[in-house]
Amino acid sequence: MGFQHRLLGGDALNAAVSETVSLIALLAVLAWAVVRPRGWPEAVAAVPAAVILIAAGAIPAGGAGAEARQLGPVIGFLAAILVLAHLCDDDGLFRACGGWMARTRAGQSESAGSRRLLAQVFVIAAVTTAVLSLDATVVLLTPVVFATAARLEVRARPHVYACTHLANSASLLLPVSNLTNLLAFGASGLAFGHFAALMAVPWLAAIGVEYVVFGRFFASDLNAGDPNVRPRRDRARADRDRDTGLPVFTVVVLALTLAGFAGASAAGINPAWAAFAGAVVLAARGLARRRVAPASLLRAADLPFLLFVLSLGILVKAVTDNGLGRALTPLLPGGTSLPALLAVAALAAVLANVCNNLPAVLVLLPLAAPSGAGAVLAVLLGVNIGPNLTYTGSLATLLWRRVLRHHGSSPDLGEFTRLGLLTVPAGLVIGVLALWAGLHALGG
After folding, report:
1. Which among 74, 135, 145, 296 is most buried, taking Cβ atoms within 10 Å?
2. Within 10 Å of residue 189's Cβ, how many Cβ atoms?
3. Is-contact 119 209, C-beta < 8 A?
């Protein structure tokens, strides 16, 4: 009996040690992702941390392998979307958008032109995020918005802030819009079209809240021109925007790829194949014209980031299995009533801001899935809208900060937080209301 007691006590001790080590490893990797010493990729910390946890027995090798197999299709999809976005940028799609925004402002006052530009940025950023993923909005569209604001001689601040906010909150619409969506799509059991139909109204609601708040929060910027001297690189980029035509072939391929997502899902085929097909068509065209090189396509796929996502999934699995899942279970209400959905979305938003939205969704999806698709989509609302509250809420926001620093325009923490406090709670509540109504109208 005494031996059995000691054995059980040893098991409890080992469980406590595994939980502590797993949590420390996860926090260390997230801290590395925020700071990125010397610009080294996130995988530099994440891959060794995952290997150490497996070697230490905090997560069995079989469990790590199962997690890797589950994340494999998602990571493949992400790689295809990253390459697709890179090829669209190389074909001039984003420069064409910048030129269109600048041309339509001709003859307007500074105030009217700045507000019109904000509306155009909202439309383009929302569509770009939904179709090409939030990374395209942050990395590719934000510099174009800087250049367009410089060309129009309006203050860039409202417009570049819109890029990061919409990269998060406008990523609700499609399974391909965000890595968190790809994970949730598999857990929801929904078809591509049903997913999009349920999220369409929450998507519009979140964008509408953002637009109303932006108009009031940045009223002084929108009513004045920019008295500062614009950087030469922005002027040069703006000049290139002037005569860029819309790449019709690229737009057609994008439209067919988007249709392929829905068709593949309806046929029971992984939509990643549609993304891969679209990337292959544009890549073949670019290679034939010698506009892109194989090395640039490999860089666009961002293999270090894909390794980071895989390793992070293993780290989160270790933390969840060693106690965090049990700790969060009582906090997550069952069912899909309106109060339950609000509570799930709020918890997801808080967790996203504490430990980043990707770990948050990996932790919460297994807990929410038994309650049905509605609960899974409520988690998605929390981890996509919630990150607009803090810099650490999403990897997209961290990328956006680096883009702004590159343009000599570092964001202000207080301003970012105040804007988030105005948009996030309102966006969550209205988004959940829209989701709840959609579930009753369309079923979930």
Report:
1. 145
2. 13
3. no
- 365 and 376 in contact (C-beta within 8 Å)? yes
Rounded Cα–Cα distance for residues 276 and 439 (Å)? 31
pLDDT at 239 over 70: no
| β strands within 195-300, DSSP E | none
Compute the mean pLDDT over every residue in the chain, rounded to the nearest whole number: 83
**154: DSSP letter:** B
User: Three-state SS across 81-114?
Assistant: HHHHHHHHHHCCHHHHHHHHHHHCCCCCCHHHHH
Residue whose entry in the numeric block shows the structure tokens 């934000």: 142
Tokens of 196: 């999009």
Range in 104-108, 269-273, 279-283, 309-313 with the lowest mean pLDDT: 104-108
Amino acid identity at 359? P
**Identity (one letter) of the amino acid at 310?**
L
Going by the DSSP 8-state scheme, the letter that residue 224 receives in this structure is S
Dihedrals φ, ψ of 34, to 5°?
-75, -45
Beta-carbon contacts of residue 303 (< 8 Å; ≥ 6 apart): none
**Residue 327 in this model has a pLDDT that exceeds 90:** no
Rounded Cα–Cα distance for residues 213 and 238 (Å): 28
Backbone angles phi, psi at 394, to 5 degrees: -150, 155
Per-residue tokens: 382? 């929390």
8 Å CB contact between 300 and 338: no
CB atoms inside a 10 Å sphere around CB 406: 13
Q: How far are the Cα atoms of 19, 21, 31, 291, 332 from residue 305, in angstroms, in the given order?
A: 25, 23, 15, 25, 30
282-302 burial by CB neighbour count: b if 16+ within 10 A, else e? Answer: bbebbeeeeebeeebbeebbb
Residue 228: helix, strand or coil by DSSP? coil
pLDDT tens for 419-442 read 999 999 999 999 999 999 999 998
Report how far residue 122's alpha carbon sits from residue 157's, in angstroms, rounded to the nearest whole number: 14
Q: How buried is residue 62: exposed, middle or buried, by Cβ count under 10 Å (0-12/13-18/19+)? A: exposed
List, for residues 48-85, the tens digit of each pLDDT value: 999 999 988 888 988 899 888 888 887 888 788 888 88
Per-residue buried b or exposed e for 359-385, using 16+ beta carbons within 10 Å of the residue's own CB: bbbbbbbebbbebbbbbbbbbbbbbbb
